[in-house]
Amino acid sequence: MDSEKYWEELNVGVKVVHMACALCQKVQKGLLSNTFDDDQVKSKDDDSLVTIADWSVQATISWILSNTFGSENVSIVAEEDVQTLSKPESAGLLGKVASTVNECLAEASRYGLKGPDKSLGPSEILEAISCCNSNGGPLGRHWVLDPVDGTLGFVRGDQYAVALAFIDNGEVVVGVLGCPNYHMKRDRHNKQQQNHISSEVSVPSPDMLEEGCVMYTRKGTGEAWVQPLVYGDRKYEWPNFAKQVHVSPIDDPALATFCEPVERANSNHSYAAGLASSVGLRNKPLRVYSMVKYAAIAQGDAEIFMKFARAGYKEKIWDHAAGVLIVQEAGGVVTDAGGRSLDFSKGIYLESLDRGIVVCSGIKLHEKLIGAVYASWESSSL
């Protein structure tokens, strides 16, 4: 790959995700300390949650990308819309989103980005959110954003992620994953240190928050990197103490740790447990909110992530794009359960996905799991 290709997209993507992580930390702190009211957490039509952080991050990143690259050159595929915020009875909620966005954009220069000359009004906030309405597809360049992946984890004070990817003609070429509650460093010789990604932790400690990080990569570099979040009055300066991350060398199933989603509605835990047993996985699964599962594998904190959705559930590209590329460039393997690469060129969904998603730190573990899927599928209820 050309050493400069997609560098500007990566550079801006990493910086704006750092900004978004700072925004999310402030909102989450307010939620956990009850300084925000219940009106700032809403349920969507599919019963999933949305918060002021989701809308605020989407507006912030949308504005920065459009301002940096030119709105005519920016196509964004993102999760949130303005249906709720546009209602007359949501004027107060929209005002809180606007305030949150403007506070974040006021800090843009601290991250080496240009903010607005004056505060954005409610209509400009709605426009920034609503212009993220691209459907992606096989042609052209598209940003893919999940402003707060794992919103349930977010409101519970647990793991969540800000996920931003860049797709060029159907291929993910840049991946950035902000993980505000995930440790950047760990003891590679002590598996007990892994409990920092477990969803059993209800409220992150101050030390955990200080360990927040941003992972990132470009396609074809064979490298994935992690940076700590920026705290206090410190300005962001590249490379911001970046360290290269690598997947775990473990290829013995008996020593491997696997991750799966917390929510049973999104994944069949019983089938994954049976599969784990059949290949000799002995460690208790780590049930983790959000794309932090991908970060855990990229950094070597876990070796396997399996997700087998129930019939009728369609995976969306913003839930996987950034994490998939980061794991791959860190040395891992990501396919569907049939062993095929994930296809991000079909629009907002991962169309033609074969049964589920299997992410592994190496080819040996991956081959064993794919073989076990084929051997057991006919007897499953999926």
From TrEMBL:
<comment type="function">
    <text>Converts adenosine 3'-phosphate 5'-phosphosulfate (PAPS) to adenosine 5'-phosphosulfate (APS) and 3'(2')-phosphoadenosine 5'-phosphate (PAP) to AMP.</text>
</comment>
<dbReference type="InterPro" id="IPR051090">
    <property type="entry name" value="Inositol_monoP_superfamily"/>
</dbReference>
<keyword id="KW-0460">Magnesium</keyword>
<keyword id="KW-0378">Hydrolase</keyword>
<protein>
    <recommendedName>
        <fullName>3'(2'),5'-bisphosphate nucleotidase</fullName>
        <ecNumber>3.1.3.7</ecNumber>
    </recommendedName>
</protein>
<dbReference type="InterPro" id="IPR006239">
    <property type="entry name" value="DPNP"/>
</dbReference>
<keyword id="KW-0479">Metal-binding</keyword>
<feature type="binding site">
    <location>
        <position position="146"/>
    </location>
    <ligand>
        <name>Mg(2+)</name>
    </ligand>
</feature>
<feature type="binding site">
    <location>
        <position position="149"/>
    </location>
    <ligand>
        <name>Mg(2+)</name>
    </ligand>
</feature>
<dbReference type="InterPro" id="IPR020550">
    <property type="entry name" value="Inositol_monophosphatase_CS"/>
</dbReference>
<dbReference type="GO" id="GO:0046854">
    <property type="term" value="P:phosphatidylinositol phosphate biosynthetic process"/>
</dbReference>
<dbReference type="GO" id="GO:0043647">
    <property type="term" value="P:inositol phosphate metabolic process"/>
</dbReference>
<feature type="binding site">
    <location>
        <position position="79"/>
    </location>
    <ligand>
        <name>Mg(2+)</name>
    </ligand>
</feature>
<dbReference type="Pfam" id="PF00459">
    <property type="entry name" value="Inositol_P"/>
</dbReference>
<dbReference type="GO" id="GO:0000103">
    <property type="term" value="P:sulfate assimilation"/>
</dbReference>
<dbReference type="InterPro" id="IPR000760">
    <property type="entry name" value="Inositol_monophosphatase-like"/>
</dbReference>
<dbReference type="InterPro" id="IPR020583">
    <property type="entry name" value="Inositol_monoP_metal-BS"/>
</dbReference>
<comment type="similarity">
    <text>Belongs to the inositol monophosphatase superfamily.</text>
</comment>
<feature type="binding site">
    <location>
        <position position="319"/>
    </location>
    <ligand>
        <name>Mg(2+)</name>
    </ligand>
</feature>
<dbReference type="GO" id="GO:0046872">
    <property type="term" value="F:metal ion binding"/>
</dbReference>
<dbReference type="GO" id="GO:0008441">
    <property type="term" value="F:3'(2'),5'-bisphosphate nucleotidase activity"/>
</dbReference>
